[in-house]
Amino acid sequence: MNLTPGTLCVLIGPPGCGKSTFAAQWPDSWRVSLDTYRTLATDAEYDQSATPVAVQIQDLVLEARLSRALTTIVDSINLHVHVRAGLLARARYWQRPISAVLFDTPLATVEEQNAGRDRDRVVPQHVVRQLHQLLPTTTQLHAEGFTTVQLASDTTPAR
């Protein structure tokens, strides 16, 4: 997958679908992740009580990177319309292209991958199922304003 320099690339999918593995193909400095920022705040990436602080950190990093036209990968679930709307607004403000990668991983695969995580990283199965139901369509993502939309199943790990 090739990204135009300065692109804000938003990964979209439930826990366990492979977003972080996919994001690992790019330099660490390109990636912003609520899990990382929750870990910085609490030493536990899945401590949801730290999400408000993690969002503040993510917002600061996004502003810094977008203002400098640096390619940035948002490695979080991004399944809620209001979250994507905020990311789209930031990209528009800084006049940056914004790309979505939709993880169309089947629910059975997501559940299997989630169950195979380290014990402290496993997301409850009912939560994974609820979040999987929130997956938008590519048509919806285009209508929201993403410059490009790709299915993760169609991408190749090239930069």
Give an overview of the whole structure.
- It is built from 7 helices and 5 strands, in the order βαβααβαβαααβ.
- The protein has helices spanning 19-23, 34-42, 51-67, 81-93, 107-115, 125-132, 138-144; strands at residues 8-12, 31-32, 72-74, 98-102, 148-151.
- The model has no long low-confidence stretch (mean pLDDT 91).
- It is globular and about 40 Å long.
- It has a 5-stranded parallel beta sheet.
- Helix 2 (34-42) crosses helix 3 and helix 5 packs antiparallel against helix 6.
- The chain has one domain: 3-Layer(aba) Sandwich (Rossmann fold).
- The chain is α/β, with parallel strands linked by helices and 159 residues long.
- The N and C termini lie close together (5 Å).
Q: Would you give the CATH topology?
A: Rossmann fold
CATH class, named Alpha Beta
The biggest sheet amounts to: 5 strands, parallel
Helices and strands, in order, run as: EHEHHEHEHHHE
CATH superfamily: P-loop containing nucleotide triphosphate hydrolases
Descriptive key words:
globular, Rossmann fold, 159 residues, 7 helices, alpha/beta, five-stranded parallel β-sheet
What is the fold's blueprint, element by element?
Blueprint: E1 8-12, H1 19-23, E2 31-32, H2 34-42, H3 51-67, E3 72-74, H4 81-93, E4 98-102, H5 107-115, H6 125-132, H7 138-144, E5 148-151
Parallel strand pairs: 1-3, 1-4, 2-3, 4-5
